[in-house]
Design brief:
The protein is an alpha/beta fold. 36% of the residues lie in helices and 21% in strands. It has eleven helices and eleven strands. The chain has helices at residues 2-11, 32-43, 57-66, 82-89, 99-102, 104-117, 121-130, 145-154, 167-174, 224-238, 260-263, and strands at 51-54, 71-74, 134-139, 158-159, 179-187, 192-204, 207-215, 243-247, 267-268, 273-277, 289-290. The strands form two sheets. Strands 3, 4, 5, 6, 7, 8, 9, 10 and 11 form a nine-stranded mixed β-sheet that branches. The chain has a two-stranded parallel sheet with strand order 1-2. The longest helix is centred in the last third of the chain and has 15 residues, at 224-238.
């Protein structure tokens, strides 16, 4: 029962975890698979990012059957071995760890409030304005390389082409006069989300070609893409470009970003390629203020 469980989290003197330690809570008598779907939607995550741990074989089987994408760990036997069982699976061992990873839980709290507001477009716009969001958008520097590589490697929903880059490739692009590597940081009054979006583009003649663009799912619906795209337009015009070209390569998980080019004013050249006339494009509107530094 939710009231009983939440009372323990809020008030019991010996409870090591409080309600605020959880990014999402689903506490009811619905099937576990339905609650996992709700959590994935609430946190804007793919189901394959979730791990379900339970000591009830029937609950584990229900989740396996309904959600094969979810990793299920059935706990049985001596509870003293449960921690080592989790550790041996290495499901929570990151390949690397960045400042953005440390701030992830705080970002999820902010995302919950945004999800609640997004049902009403008028309310959503007012809520976005109330966040007082600020962004830094600038050419990436050497210190940004680990996080940028991580974003290209791990981001799958907002990912235009699926292309990723090793740090050596990114460094070479950053040092090239014909390439552009942009990085975007975002904060609001709930959280400092860190470096959450990046793109790679190149200039060929009078055309800027967008090679790939990724953005963390933790900052969807905040109009950061409009803010970042406005900066890219400014750069393209300063480079003497009069057109911009991009492509969308469908993957198993990036359907979210498929409508992006239509929203930004691109004209489709084919099913996968798009072009923008920079002479007629209007700057996209965003609820985010650009600032020099945090």
């Amino acid at each position: 029962n939710a009231d009983v469980a939440l009372e323990v989290l809020d008030q019991h003197p010996e409870t090591p975890l409080r309600r605020t330690d959880f990014a999402a809570i689903q506490c009811n008598w619905e099937p576990k698979s339905e609650n996992l779907r709700a959590i994935a939607k609430q946190l804007n995550l793919g189901l394959d990012s979730l791990v379900f741990v339970d000591d009830n074989p029937a609950e584990c089987e229900e989740v396996r059957a309904a959600l094969p994408e979810v990793t299920v760990i059935e706990m049985s036997g001596d509870a003293a071995y449960f921690p080592s069982l989790i550790e041996e699976l290495h499901l929570f061992t990151p390949l690397d760890f960045t400042a953005e990873d440390a701030a992830r839980s705080q970002s999820y709290v902010s995302q919950q409030a945004l999800t609640q507001a997004s049902g009403d477009p008028g309310n959503l716009e007012a809520y976005l304005e109330s966040l007082k969001m600020e962004a830094i958008i600038r050419p990436a520097g050497p210190g940004d390389l680990p996080r940028i590589e991580q974003l290209f490697r791990k981001t799958n929903q907002f990912n235009l082409t699926g292309r990723s880059y090793e740090q050596a490739q990114l460094e070479a692009l950053m040092n090239s006069s014909e390439a552009i590597v942009l990085a975007a940081w975002l904060r609001d009054h709930h959280a400092n989300h860190g470096l959450v979006s990046t793109l790679v583009a190149r200039v060929e003649g009078r055309c800027l070609i967008l090679d790939n663009w990724v953005m963390s799912c933790r900052v969807f619906t905040r109009t950061l893409e409009q803010c970042l795209f406005a900066v890219l337009l400014e750069i393209a015009k300063s480079q003497g470009c009069d057109t911009m070209r991009a492509e969308f390569i469908a993957t198993a998980k990036n359907s979210y970003v498929q409508p992006l080019f239509g929203k930004l004013g691109f004209t489709p050249l084919s099913e996968t390629s798009f072009e923008l006339n920079l002479a007629t494009v209007e700057l996209p509107q965003s609820c985010i203020q650009r600032v020099e530094s945090f």
